[in-house]
User: Fold this.
Amino acid sequence: MNELMIETMESGNPANGQPACSCPMHAVRGPRVSLDASDELVFPMHKRVITQYSTDASGVTELHLYYGEKEISFDEPELFAFGEALAGQPRFVAGTATRWGEGYDWLRVRELLEQLIEEGILRRADAGESDSVSVPNGVRPSPLPPAQSTVPRTWFECEAIIRELTGRPVELGYLELVIPIYRVAHIAMDAEGRQVGEANVFPPQLRLDVPTEWRTCQLPGSRYLNARPMNVSALKSMRKHWTPTMVALLRIREAYLRRFPGARDGWTVGDLQRLSALVLTVPAYLLMRTERRVENGDLHPVLSSMFRVTDGVRMTMHNMLFIPVDEPTLPPDAPMTSSELYAYAERTNVFLSETGVCSGPQAMIEEFLNVLINGQPVAGIESTVLDAPVQAALAELEPAIDYGLYGLQAHAVVLSLWPAVARAYERLLKIFETWPEDDACETRIAFRKHLRSQVRFLRTGTLLGTEEWRVSRERVLEDMYAQCGRGMGTPSSGGTLPERIAPVVAEAAHYAHAAGQLRAALKRRFCGTTATHSLEVESLVASLMDYFRQEQAIVRAACEIQGHINRLLRRTPPARPFTASDISLFYQMQGSESRPPYLVNDLDEVLGLRAVVTQDTIEITDRTAA
Assistant:
């Protein structure tokens, strides 16, 4: 019996490694539908089908048809012609499918077609039904909620902005430790009156309502007639500035290759992640340097267009490196080509966002990838004369790239906090789960319940839920840190990332003082006036102090890099110390329901224990003490 492999792609459980798909072929089937050769069949939205071949490690080739949430796989070469023909059929008579390849008999084809009907991929045509699909082409309403901000802001207002959004001020001199370097330019306005980040501005509270034309996407592939519209205004601007944008990209590409000459022999996932992030850093550098900065509203549209088109590559590489849901992640040194990148983006729905779809036609995207990755110039590039602001920006590539590489190093350091947070929760829960049940301490029972809830969420709702995923993430961050050092000519300065963020041996006096404060507070909460449970309390103290020392090492390494950034931009050094909890403000501004829990916040909110960790001190305050 002939069976196709048809998978329904679903949101898998990111915590326990549950795959993001299930195969209905493994379920018990009911009676199969009966099909006659004369029946007419319809393949609704067939333009949404993405056809891709893959070859596994053993050399076996398969054909895959991606259709919305369905993936149809053909592993028999004689059926490849059937699969390719199927993808191009909006409507057909069932019996004609025997002529899609050589040697197809009706019984075999009928089984395949019946299976596709059962899976909801094909359906019988209704009487009098037209062959064509009605394609809406009118202007669509904006998919975005009303903007919360009405005034353009800049990060020179960093302290005020972050206070407004989080309740805590953070000085400009710590900006790149809270806002990832590749998002710094998001809130800026360009000379066409559009924000660099368009609909994806971060923080989202700073997005402005800018006149934008939205239309239904008619581009074939994953975006075809999607319920989410495409931004036509951004596409029109992109087309207007296309050739000079490609000229600028070629110049940045060449500057990258001077820093990373190994990429000339073949690009890797890590290379493309760095290159795309550095492209986004060029406008950020112009906007953020203290002297001769580009004022908000003056950024040349070539530079904002370059940012927008390249950010899609940056997001795709991020998914490849960090998101093990749709497909397993790839190591930073995995080879990557322009065609493989495009295929990945299509089959994993990178072209779809929460509010809209990518507006670039396939030919335009492929031309861009050929420029960025393969170095192939576009037509007319030889006669293109860049406007003076663009030429001036490209003359500043070396410090802009330094800014980007420092920023990526800082990003690698601060992201290292979250695997440490997840492990700390796991260790604490283990202590509480083995705590002897010889009393009815309500505080201990309540905190244990809270820990269980937080660990459950880490395991089921985040990408930190398994040690395998944490280690994979840390390897990517270690490579990011090291490669950026190589790009700046300092490959071993200060050691590797694991060495830089390793907890300091607990000999300093302030460690003993903090541990004493912590011990006294925990005894009051969990032991009362008795001397029982001292072993459990000591385990808690040791575990929490290990975690705080890890936080301190991360803050120390991050602040050192931030110092390099501030000197590069000629910023005034910040006056107040940066704290580990400041790192968590990124997720607070993001507003995501899936943001990871932060242990220091839980200690404060549930137990009344405030921990403030800077690069030099660890301070524990018992807010409930008399």
Remarks:
- The first strand starts at residue 5 and ends at 9.
- The radius of gyration is 28 Å.
- Residues 412-622 form one domain.
- Confidence is low (pLDDT under 50) at residues 11-30.
